[in-house]
Amino acid sequence: MPYSSLSDIQTRLENGETTAVAVAQTYLDRIAAHNDALNAFVHIDTEHVLAQAKASDAHRAEHGARPLEGLPIAVKDIFCTQDGPTQCCSKILKDFHAPYDAHVITKLKEAGAVLVGKTNMDEFAMGSSTETSAFGPCRNPWNTDCIPGGSSGGSAAAVAAALTPAALGTDTGGSIRQPAAVTGITGLKPTYGRVSRRGIIAFASSLDQAGPMTRTVKDAAMITAAIAGHDPADATSVADAPMPDWLAACDAQSMQGMKIGKPKEYFVDGMDADVRAAVEAALKQCEALGAEIVDISLPHTDKAVAAYYVIAPSEASANLSRYDSVRYGHRCDDPEDLLDMYTRSRDEGFGSEVKRRILTGAFALSSGYYDAYYLKAQQVRTLIQRDFIEAFKQVDVIATPTSPVPAFKLGEKTDDPLTMYLSDIFTIAVNLAGLPGLSQPCGFSGGLPVGLQWIGPAWREDLILSAAAAYESATDWSKQTPEQFSPAGGDA
Amino acid sequence: MSWETVIGLEVHCQLNTKTKAFCGCSTAFGAEPNTQTCPVCLGMPGQLPVLNKVAVEKTILTGLAINAKINLESKFDRKNYFYPDLPKGYQISQFAVPIVEGGYIDIPTKDGGEKRLGVTRIHMEEDAGKSMHEGLDAVSHIDLNRSGIPLMEIVSEPDMRSADEAVAYLKQLHQIIRFLGVSDADMEKGQFRCDANISVRRPGEPFGTRTEMKNMNSFRHIKQAIEFEVLRQIEIIEDGGKVIQETRLWDSVKNESRSMRGKEEAHDYRYFPEPDLPPLRVTQEEVDQLKAGMPELPAQLRHRFEAEYGLSAYDADVLTQTRELADWYEALVAAHPADPKRCANWMANELLGRLKEANQELHDSKVTPARLAALLDRLADNTISGKAAKDVLDAMMDSDDSADAIIEAKGLKQVSDTGAIDALIAEVMAANPAQVESYRAGKEKLMGFFVGQVMKASRGTANPGLVNQRLKALLKG
């Protein structure tokens, strides 16, 4: 069972072949057996997981099943939960307990899901490798010498090694899609405003969006349907967004007549040859499935990373000001005065990548530099948005590689932030434009998974789910499992 | 050579909404510290602001009242600085595009005219909490009840040329805000706070270097602080020195200011658009609706009182100081429509004077418009004299009895019966034969004496007009 999809587990639960408690126990056993090798989870409360599963079984018996009844879902340590600590994998939030659930956590609970625990991540979601976590790096189940991507690397590794059938991540510049790609799973970043950000620890408010990380496209649709929707307490969550039936979109599994844009800027020199080959092959397959591949151009693509690394750190520099040790969080010992308390607490509490981004952002916003950096970056953002609007006049969806390279070795890029930042070169523009993006497995490079990215127009998750489901059903890349974590003993 | 003072003012005014600017917490004043807080106004992780629409409406109303332009799309920005009573490490404010731009306020001038003072902008923002250091040993306490209370910052043009003009502007603004009911504007509670930018120059020259004065908590302090600062700057320049750009704090105990921070220590607030709030959009229809429902403003009311009730400029001004006074006056006129001027005299001179002496507020007084009108009715129909009416009003201040009951009880009913008055006059004439003789010999000044005697004999109840008339007749002999 561990490598079953959520919808398979759901069927078995509905047929009475298993119980939520048995399902939960299966994954708890897998976590106990494998988490040390991966460091995917940073917090697990076994008793609490089983208690939720038991309550779910009771709910099913008494009131019938809710949309995610009894299904285990892990969440990134960035989601505030009333149960257990919420630390954003940062020392500055060590032992912080939120007195509230994030809106999406409430939605998952209301849908009957069993919350498995908190997964590892780059500190404050700043990174592409899950190496900046205060709890130590997370590892890739396909090769534990390699990174699982980031920042939602813990969620990706946990799903890829079947320590949970599904997880939630957040995506600011690719943090769901890139780890999904390099661990061989499916990840969806919904349209900005589709999912409430309330209770999700903010990194870059105009870019952050939560989404599912799953084994199948349909599972991603199931979770998205549960967490999406207007939240009056998030002014950026959109009230009147159309919400078509995403499960039906997945079931259609047809690409007949679909126009798929292939942007030339996403197939460039310097990218991994096997990655390129795998994505080209995937597009050929789509053609065979009845789609039309259209060569398009997104001319401002090469400016996206630079714009992102001004806008995201600028917003982060303000978002992280609240961690001042006054009301909660880490405080240094024996501060001499207020300034000493601020500087030492923050110096001790934040890791070096977080400090780098705060400094970058504060600099970009400072008097005399604002126009040259922040304002310019916002102008670029507008141009990138226009690129996509123009492109979607010609095509229904866009397909690209998710990451230019497969998973790299731990420590390989930690001393070279600029190279690290280029990991997100193909995912960042989607955040800047606020569009939905999905990554699904489409092959291997040197034994490591390669991701295919689908980009849709705003609010058209249905289109990319439909295309991805059709591709998935015609291939078996989603069914591959990492050998080291194969379903051995302990299965239900 | 003379000096010219140049003053610009920034007013922070707390809007009297029930809940805070970006969360549902109560804004009630005086609660136990940190009891009116929630994860949003405490700056907890992942919490998001939701704009209070009532605060927007109140700011628009204020903009309309100062004849300003309402921006149908405005934006929020983050103003970044660290302070323990600023939970998020930034204040949500409006920097680049405020909701209100370009208005004015007219103040009266000494020559009876008006001077127009420009208002640059009004923007919305949130208040910070309060830090408390006094009486604490080596620690500070923070109260975040105020954190997130909606403020409007009203920024003037540098149009004021004296401390008096600055105070006149502030009083006018304060009065408008109170009339609109958008803020309680209680200065003691910090609901109406003012910072002044002050500089001096030779007339016709460009602006001099300005200093910013903070911490002035009353109109009196503002006047003192500005006058102090103007003299300080003139002295520096006349001594050959240069004014340095700095922020200064007014010390109302020592009556002097001291430097708080210099230009080089000035904050770089790193403003940037608030990504948690979409642009604030209002429609012209919403603005028009607010405009239609706008209450009468002090200036309009003054002009109407002069025109409609024939009041002097002075009385009209006194009776329009607050909405409450004006409403009270109009209720009085409604109950005693015969003579609005008499109403104004009695309210402005007699009632308000007594209230001041008794240290009472109008709304706490036993005297209501209806009760005062009943008294004025008796004055109008000659039941009592003006003097007696004053005695009745004295009694009404501490009594729930009606004017009629008091008149009855005190025996103040005016005697207008000719026979009774003639009898009194006969008594007085009999008692004062020498004076009668003198009067008849041409000493007509004695008339006053006789009137006094007759009134005294009547214990003030005789109708003075009738007494006069009858005396003239009877003294002729």
SSE diagram, text form:
The complex is a heterodimer of chains A (492) and B (477).
Chain A: H1 6-14, H2 20-38, E1 41-44, H3 46-63, E2 72-76, H4 103-110, E3 114-119, H5 153-160, E4 166-171, H6 177-183, E5 186-189, E6 209-214, H7 217-227, H8 246-252, E7 259-263, H9 273-288, E8 292-296, H10 304-319, H11 338-349, H12 352-365, H13 371-394, E9 397-401, H14 417-421, H15 428-433, E10 437-445, E11 448-455, H16 461-474
Parallel strand pairs in A: 2-3, 2-4, 7-8, 7-9
Antiparallel strand pairs in A: 1-3, 4-6, 5-6, 5-10, 9-11, 10-11
Helix pairs in contact in A: 2-3, 7-8, 7-16, 8-16, 10-12, 10-13
Chain B: E1 4-14, H1 53-65, E2 69-70, E3 73-74, E4 77-80, E5 90-93, E6 100-108, E7 114-126, E8 130-132, E9 141-143, E10 150-156, H2 163-180, E11 192-201, E12 211-216, H3 219-238, E13 246-251, E14 256-262, E15 272-273, E16 280-281, H4 284-292, H5 298-309, H6 313-319, H7 323-335, H8 340-358, H9 369-380, H10 386-397, H11 403-410, H12 418-431, H13 433-440, H14 447-457, H15 464-475
Parallel strand pairs in B: 12-13
Antiparallel strand pairs in B: 1-10, 1-11, 2-6, 3-16, 4-5, 4-15, 6-7, 7-10, 8-9, 11-12, 13-14
Please give a quick description of this structure.
The complex is a heterodimer of chains A (492) and B (477). Chain A is α/β, with parallel strands linked by helices. Chain A has 16 helices and eleven strands.
CATH class of chain A: Alpha Beta
Radius of gyration of chain B: 30 Å
Strand content of chain A: 5-15%
The percent range for helix content of chain A is 25-40%
CATH architecture heading of chain A: Alpha-Beta Complex
End-to-end CA span of chain B: 74 Å
